[in-house]
Design brief:
single chain; mainly beta; four-stranded antiparallel β-sheet; 1 helix; about 10% helix
Length: about 150
């Protein structure tokens, strides 16, 4: 019995005397509508190849560069900016799924290109399934899975 107690006491002394891992402190910022967010409810978030943060909300899209939020309006190549989802391709490009299809953001020209258009009025929204090799798999929201080549779209 004394041996068992001695082993237990030595075990706890060993644990207490071992060096604990140092605690690293990280700085965290909180962003709300007071700091420039479009809304406090974020639907989706993704980072592009330049490490810019893209944020999707029920009522629009914003991009965050670490300092300020930029509203992304409906424009040529981006026919809708509500209820969107993002996918970062293997090349670091951002694809945006919206009720009208999929748009690709072209960073060096600061423009959007509509690469896939939905035609069915009953569309419930495109869902990105994933990226496999050079293929991007999507569910079109109705009845089929579509494969897009990420080189040619």
């Amino acid at each position: 019995m004394r041996i068992a107690i001695s082993i237990i006491v030595n075990f706890f002394l060993y644990i207490c005397s071992s060096n604990a891992q140092l605690i690293e402190r990280y700085h965290a910022d909180k962003f709300t509508t007071d700091q420039g967010l479009l809304q406090n409810n974020i639907l989706d978030i993704e980072f592009d190849g330049r490490n810019l943060c893209w944020l999707s909300f029920p009522n629009g899209i914003q991009r965050f560069d670490g300092k300020q939020f930029t509203l992304i309006p409906v424009q040529q190549g981006l026919p809708d900016n509500k209820w969107t989802k993002f996918l970062r391709t293997s090349k670091g490009e951002i694809l945006i799924a919206h009720p009208n299809g999929i748009s690709r953001y072209v960073d060096d020209r600061n423009e959007f290109i509509l690469i896939y258009k939905t035609t069915d009025v009953e569309n419930t929204g495109i869902v990105f399934i994933g990226n496999e090799g050079n293929e991007i798999l999507i569910f079109d929201g109705i009845k089929k899975i579509v494969s897009l080549n990420d080189q040619t779209y």
